[in-house]
Every structure is written in structure tokens, then in C-alpha cells.
Fold these 2 entries.
Entry 1:
Amino acid sequence: MAEQYLMKGNEALAEAAIRAGLEGYFGYPITPQTEILEYFAKHLPPKNIAFVQAESEVAAVNMVYGAGACGKRVMTTTSSPGFSLMMEGVSYIACAEIPCVLVNIQRGGPGLGTIQPSQGDYFQAVKGGGHGDYNMIVMTPNSVQETADMVYEAFDLSEKYQNPVLILSDGALGQMMEKVEFKENYKVPAKDISWATTGKTPDRKMNAITSLYIQPEDMEQKNFRLQAKYKLIKENEVDYELYHMDDAEVGLIAFGLSSRLAKKTVDIARAKGLKIGLIRPKRVWPFPTEIIKEYSKKVKAFMSVEMNVGQMVEDIKLAVECKIPVEQYGKVGGIIPSPEEIIAKVEALLNK
Amino acid sequence: MAEQYLMKGNEALAEAAIRAGLEGYFGYPITPQTEILEYFAKHLPPKNIAFVQAESEVAAVNMVYGAGACGKRVMTTTSSPGFSLMMEGVSYIACAEIPCVLVNIQRGGPGLGTIQPSQGDYFQAVKGGGHGDYNMIVMTPNSVQETADMVYEAFDLSEKYQNPVLILSDGALGQMMEKVEFKENYKVPAKDISWATTGKTPDRKMNAITSLYIQPEDMEQKNFRLQAKYKLIKENEVDYELYHMDDAEVGLIAFGLSSRLAKKTVDIARAKGLKIGLIRPKRVWPFPTEIIKEYSKKVKAFMSVEMNVGQMVEDIKLAVECKIPVEQYGKVGGIIPSPEEIIAKVEALLNK
Amino acid sequence: MAEQYLMKGNEALAEAAIRAGLEGYFGYPITPQTEILEYFAKHLPPKNIAFVQAESEVAAVNMVYGAGACGKRVMTTTSSPGFSLMMEGVSYIACAEIPCVLVNIQRGGPGLGTIQPSQGDYFQAVKGGGHGDYNMIVMTPNSVQETADMVYEAFDLSEKYQNPVLILSDGALGQMMEKVEFKENYKVPAKDISWATTGKTPDRKMNAITSLYIQPEDMEQKNFRLQAKYKLIKENEVDYELYHMDDAEVGLIAFGLSSRLAKKTVDIARAKGLKIGLIRPKRVWPFPTEIIKEYSKKVKAFMSVEMNVGQMVEDIKLAVECKIPVEQYGKVGGIIPSPEEIIAKVEALLNK
Amino acid sequence: MAEQYLMKGNEALAEAAIRAGLEGYFGYPITPQTEILEYFAKHLPPKNIAFVQAESEVAAVNMVYGAGACGKRVMTTTSSPGFSLMMEGVSYIACAEIPCVLVNIQRGGPGLGTIQPSQGDYFQAVKGGGHGDYNMIVMTPNSVQETADMVYEAFDLSEKYQNPVLILSDGALGQMMEKVEFKENYKVPAKDISWATTGKTPDRKMNAITSLYIQPEDMEQKNFRLQAKYKLIKENEVDYELYHMDDAEVGLIAFGLSSRLAKKTVDIARAKGLKIGLIRPKRVWPFPTEIIKEYSKKVKAFMSVEMNVGQMVEDIKLAVECKIPVEQYGKVGGIIPSPEEIIAKVEALLNK
């Protein structure tokens, strides 16, 4: 059995990245993700893994672009305002199809906002905060253990699809301490990096990486390739958890931090005789459209529990094709909704 | 009658801003919006209006933040990658509730992409490309004349609601030349700038502008205020155009450049006996949900015509509550769809 | 008679610049020069004079380069570390022969140092802190009144010679309050700006400003032109003040703040019967070599009084061709030498 | 015997740095030094030595400051305009007493200038291009072999004195190919890094590195410490080469590239019967004042041969205390003076 550690989510994320074969990290400090930077600052240099505290988030994401273009396992981490600064770079990386792992430990917004946790960057993560049609796989852990586990997956999938993968967590998950085990016997999957700007052999031409396609036909083809890839990801990489959905009359839908509350809400509600269940997207892109659609035939209503004013609720409505009511309950400013509040909302919904 | 000019869309936009009482412009060159910068560089200094070519788009948007915080009519303009660089600043401005006009003359993405026109930044514009829950009024002109007209409106609404307003245009509209007249007798509406960081009188304390609310309760209140304002805007500021919708069997929905093609498509289709109409959002946020919902009871289907892989189509589906089919037709990479292609798609839709 | 004001040196400098026809200011805050920026921030916009607080000193000096290239009267101000950041830009401006006024309100160095006054940047000012062979006229006021007066001169000379002019002051002169009058009836001298990148008439080609001369022969010619100009400046623009030098046995040589102490030292010494005089360079480049050489035939020794570890003393030694002893006395870290200390040094020198 | 390589000066410099125990390199491309960056980009990562191409020269020098503060052997390299951008950082590093090696592969200035070789940055190197009273040891190799050898010395001296060391070379020396051998059995001398911001043991407090000394007394003490150190360096670290000085009537004085021409000039002149010799400073700071002073009693005149308009000539005049004529001969713009021109100048000097 693997050894158990008591760690903050931010530390577990960093440690997992190292164990997953991280080859370069580039970042800039911002609360509540700074522990990641600090962990790497301490642990990467002795392991001869590239670590750069860049001049800014703009610099950091472009270093990820450059180092990722060499076929290396690279990562940056930040929190909400910092991720906004990275939007140009993220769009470039998505277009250039560079594998890399990005992390947003969300804080409350908009603006400088608060350093408390939030889920206000859902749209930015899944609808393309940057310009143009692109998508990232967006993983949403809800525990320290899952934070660690998803890091390995994130790297593997980013390389499998040559696409950036975003881990969308928040300040509470980053700061809380829980027991965590790290994968034993993990091996970086074999990968083809013949496209990368490194390792040129005499028998081939130099590779060039760009996101610039001046000819409209070339840009169109690029978009076709990207869309074909995104379709493949949607078919293969949906991931979710079902909790007491079998006989549920109302399905909560929640990811990340709010899914913990949602799960607790289900337990409390069931103790009271209320048949509530939970669908938890472990990845919010690709979105678990099919399973939600399927359960829309069984439950009376869905309720999206989000720490924002209502973002994922749109994707749920699209998934159920508006066949049953879909409500949203959320809090903002770093305030975490209580199970009691959620249950009251569900009861109101059922009595409508 | 007002004098008529033959101007590029970019020039008309700049000239209209001057006539609308522009007090400061801050920008950075990027194709296909550079004519705006050039026009201002030539015309603002002689009029003693602040003009700064900043170090970067990051600098430019923060100068807009600063100058707007003084209660001045200020503006920045850019194109897709440049707008991504502004995402942090835009979220700050939205949270700090600073009136200002932002302009995105879209080019094809993602990445550096192509300099050809595109509508690929719809999501970025309406779902919050930056972090946190915020919204901007997003105006989508479809002619040089309307580009000019919307500039006045944009300033007026930004001040009325103390909110950033985005003019979302594209490279074709920016570069094409058409006749344009400028409003006569326009007057800047009376405005209260007692909140601004300028003009302190001895009887009041200094104003401070911030987007930082460390206390969760304060951040929550801020979000409540913002959401109340957004609700008000949704109630009052929807704007759209109907074209042959009275007896339409299929409703095209299109904004900006693609709405010109859609209109032409309607004409050609009607000449062939096909009953097609068009709903054109003149603003894509707030979205004309009600009118689309209303017409969903009359038409057999809607088809979203967008120069992207399908973004506004989601908002249409949400508006019609999935009661009738909603298709999407678009092109990417700067390639403009033809009316014939659109008609073929509509016919296929009707024969389904 | 002109009106008298009681002002800080920094404020008087700013006010004089406005009265001298300033057309643009670009700067960044740093103690002890921030009052200049604040004065301009308040007074320039209402007068429709360009004011930009740039992103950094690097940005500020490049804005001066750009605006000066348009033939405008432009200025930046900073303090020691900030002036180091401008070294690349200063060398570019000197090579491109752009008239402009730069101001260094010196603080103690090296490094971030102290915010107390210093004269530690003499070498940087006169030997070219930036790369390559270039020179600036360097003015060294020693009172609030002279600070103001020199601003007019600085602009006039910068335009006369198409060369940057540096006002080298310090934190004490910038912060002290004294009475000051501003020139009445000052008029900007007629100037030829046919070289500037503005005002193109149909009968001439576009002007281009550059500091890049790829061909060695072109670069050589550029240097010949610069050296010819510097020779002319050395012949015509030396400026100094003599104080009790007629019968002096020892000549103090001091500029700026330390020249005030030196003057007081002369008074005290003379009261004691010691025949000390003072040569005060009002400009340290071009250096008053001839007058120092001339007096080297009359005095027994010179003593350089500088608030550094000995910089100007080298230029004095070169001027006197080592024919008489040249000593140096200075203090560092913002500590101002006292007349008593200086007299003791002079006495020691005479008793050698 | 050590292996011989045929290498460019820039490559030899880079290879020597690696063999000298380089632990981190931070730079930005600029002709004619880019080969150094390229060499490191290729060779450092496989050796697990930190390599960062920074956002700019400002970023690079600050990364050197930070990494050097950890007690590591670190380096940056650039060419003239880039070195000007580093002036603030260099002054900070000098004040904070951080060992590191800086390299300026000079090109012709001022301004962007030309990419041809030059010695126009002598003053910047020895008189403090940055603000405040500070000094660096400045090494001036005149061959590929010496370039390599001096790198080891530079690191050793920078650590011995906790002071930045500058290698002042030029585009011709950087680009020319010559045979080079690397030191065998070189060992990094034992060094005390108990001052560094790394390696804290439980029994001591955290180290902090700063160049800020708000209290004037502290800043004064800092300057006293620096000056005491510089005095020690002047006493111990002067380095020069004498060539046919024994019976010379005229002494050329030249460093770096121009010393090669000067040596050839001596040979040609001697073949013609002219008794010329050469004093070559291998380091221009500390300057070989004593040996020049000594020979000033033997030769009739000195002639400084510099590829600029006359910079080192001032230090020679100060050294000889003006007892004999000191002339200067130089070329600018990347043009290299010929031995014939130099001989003609010497003959003119002798016939005066």
C-alpha cells in the first residue's frame, strides 16, 4: 500500500506533478495558489527540473508555450486574475496544439475580488476565455486525493490529444489538508514527439510551431482538425460520478468544492426521507451531457449547485434539452452554501 | 441633412468616438484594427484629446481603467489576440464599474490565427472571457453607418450603467468602405461622476476605486449589486432587428457581418419562394431572448449563422427552451459563408 | 517685477517647464522626485499638455524618444535607479539627436540605496551611463530659483543643438522650499523641425528617425557629426560661477547642492582669514576646463567637494593637467559635509 | 596536453563558463552575442544547469541578481544596448555584493548603432554606467583563448570579492574563430556562502539580501565597505601585459581587439626601426595605473589606441599625471584602425 501523507491540496498537486514526470514549471505568485510555486521552488531545482518564477503571468504562460513546444511535460499554476492574464497565451497554445497542464485555483471575482474560494471561472474555462474556437479538457477535483490523481491524468491526456488540460480547483481545495496517497508504479505513457521543436534528426526537416495561419484556407483546415479532435475527446473522455441517482427525484449537479456540499446535502436529505441524488462532473469539459440527458427522463428536476451566479446551469439546460426544470443555487464572494439552504431550495422546487 | 462621408468602418468608428465626446484613447496596433489607432493618432492631439499608444494591450486596458476612473469618456480598441490580453483588465473594470468603451475588431482564431474576419470571440464577449461573474453590453454593428451610430450609444450606455460596453465587430466591417453620416446635434447626456477619482470638493472625502473586496460579505454585496444592474440592463437594453419574420417558416439568427449575408439569403430565398426570415441581435448581450422565444412559437426552426463553429447557437437554444430545432451554420478561418450554402442548409432542415 | 512664489524645487522645476512651453511629459514615480509627476498630473491635463504616467522608466524614456521625434518640447524626470533604467533610451535619443529634457533628482546609491540626496551619478551623467560615445549638456542648479531658470535654458539648448539635456539635481534641492520667480516674457525661440516625424508637407519625403546604422561607414559619419556638435557645444556652452577666486590660495570646486556648502565654507574661511574661493560649474558637461586651467596658475591647490567618493575630481585633474594638487572631499549615503570639515581639509592641504 | 578546439570567441566563452562550474544563465538575444545564448540553450539543459531566455535584458539581469543571491555561479551576456538596459540591475548587484559574471560583447554605438565591433562602452564599464559609486572588475580579453581563460578567473574573482565581474569583449572577438584549449583540472575554489539566501541551517536566522539602506548612516557604512573592498581589489588585481616596452620611445596602450592591432603595429614599426612598445591592460578596472606611471618616466609619449572617440585616454592621462604627452587614436562605427595609420600617428607625435 502506498504511503499516506497529510498535505494541502496545493502541495499535493505539486508533489503529484513531480511524480508524474514534470519537466518544467513556470509561474508567478498569487493567493491562494502560492504554495504550489513555493513547493516547486524548493523541490524542483534539486531534482534538476526547470523552475522559473517569471516576470508575470503573461511571461509564465508563454514560457509554458515555448517549453511545451519542445515536447516536455510542463505546467503553470495561478489564480483567477492571473488566469485572465494568460488568455492570449492559452489560445495560442490551444491553436498550436501544445500539451501542457494549466491550473486555476479560483478565488472570488470579478476583479481582484477576494482571496476566498469561488467557482466563478467556469465559463472562462469551458467556453474559451481566450479568443477563437478552442477547448481544453477541464478537470474539477473535489478532494486533495483527487487533486493529486488528476495531475497524472491531466498530463497523460494533454499528451494523448496534444491539447492543454486545465485543472480548475479553488482556494478552499488548495488550502485544505487531507490525507493523500500518490500513485505507485506510474509510468509516463510512450509518446510521439516527432512534432516538437527539439530532437531533430538528420533525416528530417526542422519542425516549426506556430499559431499563425495567414491563408484563410489554412486557418479553416486548422479549425477542422481542432474540431475533429474535440469531437474525439467528447466521445472518449467524459468523466463523472453518480451518487444516489438510482431512485432520485431531484438530481443535484455540482463539481469541485460545491460537490462536497452537495454530497453531504444528499446524505442529510435522505436521512430526512427526501430522495435527492448527485451527478458530479469530474470534468466539466467535455461535459457529461449524455448521462444528464438520460437521468432527465427519471428525475423531476435538476439543481445546479455552483459557487457563482449561474454558469454550469446553462450547460445542464442544454443537456436536458429543457425537458425538465433546471434550477441553480449558488453563493458568491467566497461564501460557501450550506446543505440546509440547498435542501430548502430543493423542497421549494418539489412543491412548485 | 447631415453630410455624407465615404469611410472605412474603422475610420467611422474613430470619427464617431471623437464626435461623441471622447476624452482619452489608449491602444496598441494589431491588424485589422490599426486604422483606428492611426486615425486617433492623427486627429486627437490637435483636439487636445488624450492619445497614448501604450506598451502593450495590457498597458492599454489598464490606462482605460485609470482614465475611466476619473469619469472621462475613454476607449480602447484591439483585435482578437489583443482582446485576450485585456481579460484581466476587463474583469477589473467590470467589477470597479468604470464606464468605458472597448472595441474588438475580430480576426480568425484561435491563436495568432489569420487577419481575416471572424465571429469566433462571441463566447469571450458574452460569457465573460475574464474571470468571475460579470457582463458587458455587447453591440454588434453590421454596417459602417451602424458602427458609427453604436459608438454614441456605447458611451451613453456605459455611463448610464457605469459598466464597460464592448463593440464586437470584425475585420471585414472594419476594412470595408461605405457611406456614413454622423449624428447631428448629439449631446453627451448629463452624468453624475461624483464617484470618480477626480473633482474632489472640500466637502467630501476622497473617492477610491478598487476591485478588491477582501471580506467575503463585501464581495457578496458587490456581486449582488452587479447582478441587480445586469438584470436592469436585460430588462431595458435588448436591441434587435426583424426582417421578414412575419410569415417566416425558418428564422435565421445572425449578428454583425453574417447578418448581412443572412439578409441577402432571405431575399434570395424569398425570390425562390422559400419563407425565410431573420432576427438580428443588434446587441448580443443582453441577448434578445424574449423575441426569439416568441417567434419559436411561429417558425418551424431557427438557424444560427455565425462565422465560428457554433457559439451563439447555445444562447438561441436556451432562449427557445429547446422547443423547436435550432441548427447552426458557420465558416471559420476568415471564410465567409455564401447565401447559396445557407439556403441549401435551410432546405435540408425543412426536409428533415 | 515678477511675482514671487514659495515652492519646492521639484514644483518650481515643473512649473518652469510648463511656462517654458512643455508639450509632453512622461514619467514614473520614485522618491525624491515624485512631486514633479504629481505637479504635472494636476496641471498638465487642464492645459491640454500631454501627461502620461508610463508603465516604467523604460516606457517613459521611450515615450520621450517618440514624442521628441515629433519636434515637441518633452521631458521626463526620475531619480537615480530610474535613470539607470533609462540608459538604453538615453543612448538612442542621443544618437537620434532628439531634443528633450531629462531630469535626475539624485538619491544615494548604489542600488536602491537611500532616499537622501547624493551626487553619486556624476559619472553616469557626463561619461555616458549608456553605451557608445555620446554626450548630454548637464545642468546642475544649486537653488530653487536656478532650478527653475535652468529649465528654460535646458529646452532652448536641447533644441538649438538637437541633443538631450540633463538637469542633474538631488533630493535636497528637490524637496527644499525657497522663493522663486519665473521668467517674464519668455518666448520659445524659433526652431526648425523640418527633421521631425510630423508636419510632412506634400513637397517632401517622409522623415524617419533612427539610431540604427548598419553600414560601418554610416555609423562612422554619424559619430563624426555627433563629435563635431559636441565640440561646438564645448566651445560655446560652458557655464560657471566664480566666488572670491581673485585672491584665492585654494579653490574649491563644487556643483549643485555641495556648492551651497562650499560657498558658505568660503565665507566662514574668509572670516577666519583663510583665502579660499569657489569655482562652481553651473554645467558639468561641457566642463569648465579652461577657467579651471587658468586658475590653476594662481591657486596652490584645488579641492573638489562632492557628495560621492570622488568623480568630478577626475575631470578637475584632467583640466589642471596635474600641475597643482587636486584633492577631493565628499560624503556619501545622503550625509551632507559641513563647512567645518571642509575647512579642516583645506587647512591640512595648505600645511602639506 | 589539453585538447585543442577551433571555436568562435562566443562559443569558447560559453564552453569555458560550463567548465568553470556555471550553475545558471539568464539572457536575451542580441547580435553579436547571440551565439552564447544559443550555445547555452543547447548545452545547459542536458547538464541540468539552469538556462532561461528571459523576457528582456531587464528581466535577465534581475534573474542573475536573484540566482546569484543564492550563492550560485551565474552569468548573463549581452551587447551594448542590452547592457544599457541592465544598468539598474548592475548597480543593485554591486551594492548587494552579489558574485556574478556579466559579459558585454560590444557593438558600435551610440543607439542601436551598428552590429560591427566597438570599444565604445569603456566608460560605461569602468566609471559606473549605473547610478552611485560602484565598481566592477572589468576583464578585456584579446583572443579566443584569453576569452576562455578569463571566464574562470572572472568567476573566481567575483566570488573572492563578492562583486560582479564584467568581461568586456566585442563583436569581432566574439565572432572570430581561433584555436582554444580549456583549463585542465580546474576546481571551483572553496567559497563561503553563509551570506546567501539559501542553505539556511536551524542554528541561524534567515539571510536577506537588499540594496536598500534607508538610514543615511547605514548607506554611508555600506559605501565605506564597498570602497574598502575596491581599494583591496586595486591593490591586488591589476593585470597587464608588456610588449617591447624595455627600450620603447613611444608606448601604445590598448586593450582587447585594438591591442591585437597595436601589437602588430609594434612589430611593423620595429621592423622599420621605430622603437614602439605596448602596455596592454588585461583588466581595465582596476586600471594598471602604477606601471603606466612608471613607464611615463621612460617613454616620450603614450598613445591610446581605442575603437571609440577617446575614453581610456582619460585614465592614462590621470595615471601619468600629465607628465608626458598622451594622445589617442581611434576609429568608430565598427571600423578597425590599421597599423599603418597608427604608425603614421606615432611618427607625427615623435616629430612634434
Note: Chain B has 13 helices and 14 strands.
Entry 2:
Amino acid sequence: MSDTLDLAAGWLSTDDLLAARGTLPILYVEAIPVRVDAAGRITAVGLLLRARPDGTVSRAVVAGRVLYRERIRDALIRHLEKDLGAVALPRLPVSIAPFTVVEYFPDPSVSGFHDPRQHAVALAYVVPVDGDCVPSQSAIDLAWLTPQEATSEAVLAEFSGGQDRLIRLAMAHGGQLP
Amino acid sequence: MSDTLDLAAGWLSTDDLLAARGTLPILYVEAIPVRVDAAGRITAVGLLLRARPDGTVSRAVVAGRVLYRERIRDALIRHLEKDLGAVALPRLPVSIAPFTVVEYFPDPSVSGFHDPRQHAVALAYVVPVDGDCVPSQSAIDLAWLTPQEATSEAVLAEFSGGQDRLIRLAMAHGGQLP
Amino acid sequence: MSDTLDLAAGWLSTDDLLAARGTLPILYVEAIPVRVDAAGRITAVGLLLRARPDGTVSRAVVAGRVLYRERIRDALIRHLEKDLGAVALPRLPVSIAPFTVVEYFPDPSVSGFHDPRQHAVALAYVVPVDGDCVPSQSAIDLAWLTPQEATSEAVLAEFSGGQDRLIRLAMAHGGQLP
Amino acid sequence: MSDTLDLAAGWLSTDDLLAARGTLPILYVEAIPVRVDAAGRITAVGLLLRARPDGTVSRAVVAGRVLYRERIRDALIRHLEKDLGAVALPRLPVSIAPFTVVEYFPDPSVSGFHDPRQHAVALAYVVPVDGDCVPSQSAIDLAWLTPQEATSEAVLAEFSGGQDRLIRLAMAHGGQLP
């Protein structure tokens, strides 16, 4: 998960964020961008390639913090634009209820979802995007894979922090778990 | 609920359908068409005005039978096109799980949802539509109301069969119950 | 899916049911019985072992038709009692919306879910059961497996009609997809 | 929403919590306790009566913060025990996905949900409870009302912060919106 642009927005200094991260769960939104056909079936999943703090590269979904006084829908739109560009045309679901809630802990054994920096709780959504997507500066690449490809052993091995499981939960939500 | 076009499709004769209606629950899909803003919030609800068999007129949502060997998503698209025209551009949800299931009985006291002709079980969806909507021959009119208007006492009184409750459940699903 | 007891109830003769099966989608409910811990996490999945019409044996979930004028909750309770006994103490969810809808077709290539006898549409629920479960006459055995065991390759291979996928969707719904 | 016991737990000093409240959204869980019949239908809703900081009294649901390194299910159990006693026997849902997400803002005009102290984001669940419930020291009373009573104008007027709307959304989720 990347906070680069959040910090640039200046609502919380780096020091304050580090302090909060040691004392409170931090609220995130996560979006799995998908292409759908005319009947709403998922035909492709958009996966980002990101450099991680330790120098390795991993697959990732769209993700970021919810800011103070920011609505969840606005946070989702902001992070989708940040990661996919301004003309991705995301289609947020009618209901704000996430399809799942992902709990990331500094200790990888608690939930299987792991974030060494913090306890983060992410509201997760599957979001169809209609427009052109261009990965932003914080991502190296964006690849569109079929649900079968995205849930293959080889691709799942390229995620970190347990997000391979998130991808499979998202495909199950869309009825596309092979 | 209207089956005019279903019958025209000829997959079941009128006699056979009448027989089945006395012995089995009949599977329907129902769609509440909505307009949404860029962040996915419902801004308007599309309500049809239909003539009923008894000569009265009532508000209604998009609805119809699922045919033999027809997929649910295809039934939804077919009925949306039948009631709203071919360029409504409906956006079916990623998940096939309906937001609620509506059980219509010949006896109005069983569930509060009433269909004098049959026991019908409807999978209900809230469906954003992007395109131009023109009510088909089976509908007298299509009106776009705000969630506040659609759930006002005056408008709710214009539904029949308990569908006023369906509208309120749909708005609750979208977080738009005033 | 077994209709033995449904037919015994006599609401539809075998001939009429066979006729309806060739002309209409037939409405089913399916329940995946689970044991949960004090915090609601799935600890075990109850899988039936059933003899199939072709003489083979396969794993199965609780399933059966919704009868004419029967409510969905009542059909669920009836089939849970039929398959697990009268003291299983099932806990139906607060919302009647199923976690998924399973579409079985005579042609296995349509949806991946297959029923050679009919087009069946099943509303699927994950149902915690608290009491003692004894498999009924229509089942050979009932086994309680952990989510890991239930989604292992070996166990998934023992299902038929695509229900291995239903088990994985149910575990995903409960956040227990390994 | 009450944090008395949270603070007693000492994971965050009052000063630190006040500081965090001015800079980050704070994660909460909320539970609407219900009694259900054997088929899972809501028969009664448990509403707390709480003294508010300004000296007035208002109806309330079970609510509280998620602590650092605490799982959501554990936070729900902790707050249900805190508000309803140790033998309430809550039955958390199989899926961790909340039925809705409630966004409380210091400014009441943003979402209609209002908390003068903070920006709080609450994951909301409807939770059947089987055991005896005794309101804790932080609540004045606990009353069990039918869904009809709980959604009557008179009772809804006794909530604050917009929680009357939460009650109606919860009843809609359970199909019990009159």
C-alpha cells in the first residue's frame, strides 16, 4: 500500500502518521479494477506492479488511506485516479458495503494479511472501469489478466502481504473463481 | 409483472404457463433502474407506469420471468431492454447475488408481497443505467424521481403488490433511505 | 440434489414434475452447514455423502426444491432437517439475500454447474448449525472437515455437478479460502 | 458512542486519542442486537438508552472503537459483552463484510450521520443474541422492541447523530422494514 500522495496532501505530517500507526488501526480502501462485458461478467482484472520499500517488486491492487473528513466514495475515486489515471472512468457499486474487509497486521500470523508498518483495515471493492487506464508514477506497470490468469499459481505468487488471497476473494465475489 | 414478451417468445404456451403457475414457484428477476453520479451515489430512480389487468394503473419496476435454459444475467438484460429500450446501457452488478429476494404469493398476508396469479420468487437488483431510456409498449410512462421523491408517501401509494416496500429496500441498499 | 421427500409431500406428481422440468427453471435452496466458534469464524464444514442416480457416490451439500406456496426460510429449514435431522439447530442468516445464486443447466458447458435432469436455480446460504447432526436416509454419511480439508484437491474431486466450486465460494464468503 | 472501557484498557492515552481524533478517521464497530425466531426472522430489536455528554438521554446501538492490533470480530464481541453483559451469547455473521458502513462527521451536513468529537467510520452488523442481556454500567436501560415499534416515528425520534437511519437500514437488511 502506498501513501506517497496522501502525505503530499499534507493532512498529516510524516511524524504524526508514524505515531498514529503505532497506536490505532488505520483505515484504508482497496479496489480491484476489472473490465466487464455487457452482462456485467468480469472479463479481465487490472493488476499493478509496484516497487516495495525493500527493493523487490510485487503485484498490487489499488489502495490507499481514507483521509480525515474524507468520504469513502471520494477516497476510492481519489486512489483509483491516482493509480489508474484521470480517464479510467471507475464505476463504484451502488452499495457502500464492501464485499470484504481486509485486516493487515504487523504480525503476519494474525490474519494472514500482513503490513510491516501498521495495523490497517481495508474496505475492499471490485470496481469496473470503462476508460483508458495508465499506471501512475507510483506504479511500474498495469496488466490486464483474465480471471483464470489472475488466479493462477504463477501470478498469485507475485503478490505480497497476503493480497493473493484478496484477488481470489474478489473473483469469488464475481462468481469467477475457476 | 408483465410476461407479454415472454409468451411471444413461445417457450411455454399460455396453457402450460397457467398450469405451472398453480404448482410451482415461478422464478423472476426484478431490476430497479437508477441514475448514479460519478462516485456511484443514486441520484434518481426510474419508475414505470403500467396498466394492470384490472384496468387500474400503477408504478412498477422492471420485472419478468427467467426462461428455461436462460441465464439470470441474460434475463435481466432482456427485461431491461424490453422495458427501457435498446440503448439504456444497463450496468449489471459484478456479483450475481441479489440485494434481496422478493416472495410474491397469491395470498397477500403471507409475505406482504402479492401476485394474484402465482407464487413468484424474484431476485432483485439495483441497476445503474447510463443511456437513454424509452418506455416500451408494455409501459405507459417512465419517470425519474429522486430517492426522496420515490420514497415519499404519495409515490409509494401508487405501487401495487407490495412493491412500495421493494423501492424502500432498494434505497436502503444504496444508502439513500431518507 | 434430491427430491425424494419433496415428491412424498405430494404437491406435484412425478409426471408433472418431469413436465415442468422440461419447460421452466426450477427453484432450489442450498445450504452449506458449518460449525462456527464464539466469534463466528467457520471451524468446520458439514459435507454429505450421497448415492447418485448413476450408482456413483459423491459429496453434496444440503439442497432441495422450494415448494408451491412455501417460503424460502421454511424450505431451508425443511431441507436442513431432512438432511441433518431434527435437532441440528440451524441458524439462518438475518438477511434472505443468498451469498450466491447457482445456475445448474442440463448442458455442463453453460455455467460450469450441471444437473442432467433440469435447469435449476439455487439460492445458496452458509448456515451455522449448533446441534447434533445425523445424516438422514437419503445420505450415506455426514463428515465435518476443516475449511482447509474441505477445499483440498482430494475432497473437491469428490463433488459432482460443479459443487466443488460452490464449496470454495462458500469458504470465500466466510473469509476462509486458504 | 462510548469509549470509557477502551480508555481504561490503556492502549491510547486520553491526550493521544484527542490528538488522533483531529487528524484521522477513527475505526468503530456497531452492532444492532436482535432476537430471531427459529427461521432466522427478526422478532425484536435491542435498543440501549444512554446518557450523552450534554446531559440528554438517547437511544443507541452497541458501538465502540477497534483497538490497535485488535481483530474486528474480537472488537465486536468485546463491545457486545461490554454493553449487554457476559451471557448475551451473540451470534456474529459468517461473513465479516458489514451490511453497511456508517460515516460519522463533526459536520452533520456531510452524511447525515454526526459525531461532534470526531470523524468515525463504523462497520455495522445485525447480531442475533440468544442469551440474557443486562445493560452495563454505561447504559441506563435496554429495551426490546418489535421491528414495527423500533421504526415508529416516536422511537426513531429518540436517537441522536442520525442513528435512527441506521436502525431503518438494519431492518431493511433483515427484510423487516414495515
Note: The longest helix of chain A spans residues 72-84.
